[in-house]
Amino acid sequence: MKEGSCVATPFFTLFYKESPATAQGVNQSVNSAAAPCRVAYIAGKKNGNAVWRNKAKRKLRAAWQLKGRDPQGMDILLVAKKAATEVSAIRIAEEIDTVLSQQGLLQ
Predict the structure, then answer these.
(1) Other C-beta atoms within 10 Å of 26: how many?
(2) Is 21 within 8 Å of 35 (Cβ atoms)?
(3) What pTM was estimated for this model as a whole?
(4) Does the structural domain 5-102 have CATH classification 3.30.230.10?
(5) C-alpha R_g of the chain
């Protein structure tokens, strides 16, 4: 992501920005608050082999589904860190919720 903001935690780095469709007003009939949140999960090769990368992405996906509400009209990128596979998805979900709240992304 070339624009937007990022927040680093011990388990992941979260990049976020307003969705292009919301920013440009492409869908005028839908309120920007009702626009869906798009999420991508990344686990880089420098942290481990394919088994580790798949496990890390599975944990990030599970954590995203366990957390509370979605930030509306945002593009979210979750990049796994080495410690992501060493903790539970519940712990990662709590961390995601904390970061989203601190950044003011949840209304």
Answers:
(1) 11
(2) yes
(3) 0.82
(4) yes
(5) 14
